């Protein structure tokens, strides 16, 4: 089991998010950070005591910011904010996404710019460690002023008014008490500090970026296996070619392919006398295309890494000042998620074209039609290629950016919004589709290698082939493919075919 992840509002990483969200790591708060939380809280309490006008603390919200709230009703204001904004709809977010969101919300609150009491982040951390998870609907956020609806549903559990119940169908308030925890009553600014922020879309983005990297590396293993199956040449992966166009991820992609194909007997068998001068783009240009995909994921990862430790609520507390701004706007994340979606749609399309080359007898350099033992009597991989085409087509539809689809909300006060949660949903669907396409390519590539025995592929390809065969036997006659595809796709998501893990 992983050790504890200590949060201080400034040093959380994507790996930390994965450890807590999926791997069961416990969470602790740095003592120094709690001191900063107390200092920022003192600033808020002093401002309230002197009757200062502070957005969302002594005024209404959004277009109602001109409405002054009397001091005796400040608690009611914060409670009403949580109740009114818990308007999410649709299927609940997966458990790992909820845990990621909770971790990020606690992390931003301990940064010392939110003006809340330490009890808020402490209760979230205690819930994470006790595995108490509210049910958070997945739809209803436009990403500004942050993820209002998802975070409001999380806040409901903290105050014991959990309309949606606990993740899995129970009562979150009862689950709190069963874990020895008590709901809290929100004080001045605390409801607003809780719902203003990008932590739902940021949590989803962190998990997606992690998964995208795993899929990116695995796509190389599938590409190398396909190249071997159709007796392609690795010459286009020569380091000198890529040094002449030195995009870092293109060079990294070519190096990864060279390593996978090293010591290939299949390559040596057709080094001389092969009439083909060059392979098709889907084989020859793999480093250029997957290199660009990697650059897109890296761009998104950079934005996400900053956002994990960003103060995204409003207003913010700085020393003795309370300042209103717009850090809750999710445009950086929405753009990052759209880029991930576009990059993975590209990856899926490339993999589908290689599948076609393996199963099509006009393109596969001697492999039987659709990799069937008895073509005609058997259809072999005909239908999996159709499935891959359907998945790749859906990826292209979903790759249409959400981050440019603004619709004004809140009486036109929020007149430009980023649609970050929509971008996250799309990117997640694209990733799932792309993993299945790569799964089909791994299965087809492994089947292609069956017909080239006893020649051995490169060492890395051989390791990938062995990993596939541990899960799925060779095709010795037609059978349903669904279970095979889903098993390998799940293995991809779990890193089972990641070249770094073989």
In brief:
The protein is 55% helix and 4% strand. The protein has helices at 14-22, 31-49, 74-85, 95-109, 119-130, 148-159, 172-178, 190-195, 199-229, 239-243, 248-261, 265-269, 281-284, 286-308, 331-359, 382-398, 420-450, 459-471, 482-493; strands spanning 5-7, 27-29, 89-92, 137-139, 316-318, 321-323. The model has no long low-confidence stretch (mean pLDDT 93).
Give the helices and strands, then pairings:
Layout: E1 5-7, H1 14-22, E2 27-29, H2 31-49, H3 74-85, E3 89-92, H4 95-109, H5 119-130, E4 137-139, H6 148-159, H7 172-178, H8 190-195, H9 199-229, H10 239-243, H11 248-261, H12 265-269, H13 281-284, H14 286-308, E5 316-318, E6 321-323, H15 331-359, H16 382-398, H17 420-450, H18 459-471, H19 482-493
Parallel strand pairs: 1-2
Antiparallel strand pairs: 3-4, 5-6
Helix pairs in contact: 1-4, 1-9, 3-6, 4-5, 4-9, 9-11, 9-14, 9-15, 9-17, 9-18, 11-14, 14-15, 15-16, 15-17, 16-17, 17-18, 17-19
Salient structural properties:
502 residues; mainly alpha; Fumarase C, Chain A, domain 2; 2 domains; two-stranded parallel ribbon; two-stranded antiparallel ribbon
Plain-language structure description:
This protein has 502 residues and is mostly helical. It folds into two domains: 5-197, Fumarase C, Chain B, domain 1 (Orthogonal Bundle), CATH 1.10.275.10; 204-407 and 416-501, Fumarase C, Chain A, domain 2. It has helices at 14-22, 31-49, 74-85, 95-109, 119-130, 148-159, 172-178, 190-195, 199-229, 239-243, 248-261, 265-269, 281-284, 286-308, 331-359, 382-398, 420-450, 459-471, 482-493; strands at residues 5-7, 27-29, 89-92, 137-139, 316-318, 321-323. A two-stranded parallel sheet has the order 1-2. The chain has a two-stranded antiparallel sheet with strand order 3-4. Helix 1 packs across helix 9 and helix 9 crosses helix 18. The longest helix is centred in the middle third of the chain and has 31 residues, at 199-229. It is elongated and about 90 Å long. The protein starts with a strand and ends in a 9-residue tail after the last helix. 54% of the residues are buried.
């Amino acid at each position: 089991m992983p050790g504890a992840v200590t949060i201080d509002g400034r040093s959380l990483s994507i790996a930390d998010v994965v450890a807590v969200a999926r791997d069961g790591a416990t969470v602790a708060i740095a003592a120094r950070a709690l001191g900063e939380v107390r200092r920022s809280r003192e600033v808020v309490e002093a401002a309230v005591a002197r009757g200062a006008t502070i957005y969302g603390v002594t005024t209404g919200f959004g277009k109602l910011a001109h409405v002054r709230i009397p001091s005796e009703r400040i608690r009611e204001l914060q409670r009403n904010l949580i109740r009114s904004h818990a308007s999410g709809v649709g299927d609940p977010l997966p458990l790992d996404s909820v845990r990621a969101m909770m971790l990020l919300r606690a992390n931003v609150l301990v940064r010392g710019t939110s003006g809340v009491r330490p009890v808020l982040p402490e209760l979230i951390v205690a819930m994470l460690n006790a595995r108490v998870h509210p049910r958070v609907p997945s739809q209803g956020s436009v990403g500004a002023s942050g993820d209002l609806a998802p975070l409001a549903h999380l806040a409901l559990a903290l105050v014991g008014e959990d309309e949606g119940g606990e993740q899995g169908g129970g009562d979150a308030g009862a689950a709190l008490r069963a874990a020895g925890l008590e709901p809290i009553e929100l004080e001045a600014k605390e409801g607003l500090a809780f719902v203003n922020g990008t932590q739902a879309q940021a949590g989803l983005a962190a998990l997606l970026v992690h998964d995208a990297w795993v899929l990116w590396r695995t796509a190389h293993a599938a590409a190398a296996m396909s190249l071997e199956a159709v007796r392609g040449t690795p010459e286009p992966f020569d380091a000198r070619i890529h040094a002449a166009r030195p995009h870092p991820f293109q060079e990294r992609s070519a190096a990864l392919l060279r390593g996978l194909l090293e010591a290939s007997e299949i390559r040596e068998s057709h080094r001389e006398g092969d009439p083909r001068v060059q392979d098709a783009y889907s084989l020859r240009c793999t480093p250029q295309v997957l290199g660009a995909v990697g650059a897109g994921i890296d761009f998104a990862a950079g934005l996400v890494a900053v956002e994990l430790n960003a103060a995204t609520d409003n207003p913010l507390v700085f020393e003795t000042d309370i300042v209103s701004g717009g850090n809750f706007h999710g445009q950086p994340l929405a753009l990052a998620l759209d880029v991930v979606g576009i990059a993975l749609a590209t990856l899926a399309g490339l993999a589908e074209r290689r599948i076609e080359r393996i199963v099509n007898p006009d393109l596969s350099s001697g492999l039987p039609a659709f990799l069937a033992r008895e073509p005609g009597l058997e259809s072999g991989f005909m239908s999996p290629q159709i499935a891959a085409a359907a998945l790749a087509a859906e990826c292209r539809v979903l790759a249409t950016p959400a981050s440019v689809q603004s619709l004004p909300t809140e009486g036109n006060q929020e007149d430009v919004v980023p649609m970050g949660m929509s971008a996250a949903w799309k990117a997640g669907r694209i990733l799932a589709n792309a993993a299945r396409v790569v799964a089909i390519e791994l299965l087809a590539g492994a089947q292609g290698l069956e017909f080239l025995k006893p020649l051995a592929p490169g060492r890395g390809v051989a390791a990938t082939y062995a990993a596939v065969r541990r899960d799925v036997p060779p095709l010795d006659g037609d059978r349903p493919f669904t279970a095979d595809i889903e098993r390998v796709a799940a293995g991809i998501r779990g890193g089972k075919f990641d070249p770094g893990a073989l």
